[in-house]
Fold this sequence. Notes:
There is one protein chain. The protein has two domains: about 1-50 and about 155-285, no CATH class; about 55-145, Alpha-Beta Plaits (2-Layer Sandwich), CATH 3.30.70.3040. It has helices spanning about 1-15, 15-50, 65-75, 90-100, 105-110, 130-135, 150-190, 195-200, 205-245, 255-285; strands at about 55-60, 80-85, 120-125, 140-145. The radius of gyration is 30 Å and the shape is elongated. It has a four-stranded antiparallel beta sheet. The protein starts with a helix and ends with a helix. The protein is of the alpha+beta class. The protein is about 75% helix and about 10% strand.
Amino acid sequence: xxxxxxxxxxxxxxxxxxxxxxxxxxxxxxxxxxxxxxxxxxxxxxxxxxxxxxxxxxxxxxxxxxxxxxxxxxxxxxxxxxxxxxxxxxxxxxxxxxxxxxxxxxxxxxxxxxxxxxxxxxxxxxxxxxxxxxxxxxxxxxxxxxxxxxxxxxxxxxxxxxxxxxxxxxxxxxxxxxxxxxxxxxxxxxxxxxxxxxxxxxxxxxxxxxxxxxxxxxxxxxxxxxxxxxxxxxxxxxxxxxxxxxxxxxxxxxxxxxxxxxxxxxxxxxxxxxxxxxxxxxxxxxxx
Length: 288
């Protein structure tokens, strides 16, 4: 408790330095929060596409059921398949009617005999889609293979780029935060040099003098984390209706509240580590 009072007194006596420290921490955790939400969204999008039938193989009209079963078994034996769904001609007609229910003319022109049977296939790993697609193309029973290779490749590449940029940005901002906290703590130690000398003369231990500065760094980190998380979370919650409409069909929004508070918990832990580490380095350097 006594360290807390001393910490709060030090903060009140230098509000501009405290504001600068909290500002840089806020920017750091604002970036971390947005990256966290972006990472959640991109992972949800990738998971959605990975769970969808990524490759559709259309059979020739004369293909027998035994050939279809043999092809299914052959694909399952590779260990790369997450699911296979057989769509018969009759089921294909039902899907077609559902998709074109508002256009009677199109419904009258199509019968089950015209539509081919198909296999809808998804793989365990998105990287295996290309191998499965090439395997299907070599089958004599297959008439056509539909595989949106470019879309999936672009999505995977974009997700990886976002992760790398986010990690690099967070690393740089965290490094800047550490240096700024060290600088501010060093300035405060210099300003209190006479008080520290008096405390040393009357028998105060090193850690009795150091703890208020360490707690001050933790305070800056925690406040910055809370502000950064609150701002980003409010913005995401406010934008959820628009974003959900924009990504219609992909179940990303609304983001579960558990994720919001898990993100806050992770940021608070990181804030305590960053604040304590920065202040600790400062007191080791300036309080010898």
